[in-house]
Amino acid sequence: MSVLNPSPTGLQPILTPQEHHGPGNFITKYIFSTDHKIIAIQFLFTTLLMMIVGGVLALAVRWQLAFPWESMPIVGPWLFAAEGGQISPEFYTMLFTMHATVMIFLVIIPILAGTFGNFLIPLMIGADDMAFPKLNMLSYWFMWPAIACFGLSFKYAGGPAAGWTSYPVLADLAQAAPGSGTAQTYWLLGVTFVGFSSMMGSINYMTTIINMRAPGMTFFRLPMTIWGLFITA
Hints:
Helix content: 55-70%
Number of helices: 9
CATH class: Mainly Alpha
Structural class: mainly alpha
Shape: elongated
Radius of gyration: 23 Å
CATH superfamily: Cytochrome c oxidase-like, subunit I domain
Strand order of the largest sheet: 1-2
Order of helices and strands: EEHHHHHHHHH
Mean pLDDT: 82
Low-confidence stretches: 11-19
CATH topology: Cytochrome C Oxidase, Chain A
Number of domains: 1
Number of strands: 2
């Protein structure tokens, strides 16, 4: 934490930063880190990986739209042997659902809030870290159970196919669409983990902005970026 020490003139306190992240080992410093900068990097690289996954799903969607009756190259004969390598209508619906799910819940939300929030909030308000470093760490690691649940949903009936909004008629009735049973349950668990991650980040961001601003930085002196992150939280 930063501490206030009297200045040599005795007229105004000055802020002296104190290092609170010990050297530690590789595990505590780079994997289960409580440093907001490392957590921001973790969010960044994880979302970039998920962006590649979402891009591959989008490519498959566009292939089906462009060449609906042709075999998908490379993976078509392996994934869709019964259909002659062509993407089935049911699998296309699943691709559309999971592409939107990955891009919204595993890319847009984490990279905008997790990456930029962790990088910019302490830097722009004069804080040395977030208000709750361990909660900040958990907000990142709760993303991985979500990724696992979304991945497991592919195992059952080809994955959820009710859209990223989980349209109730398709999501509730197993006969309405393939994957509306167990696959949709895993999808819902994944969204729940993303929700917990977002709530932990929101609590951290709001508390940090309200309570850890530099001396003299009122709310009306906050940068617009911080206002945007505060309102988002």
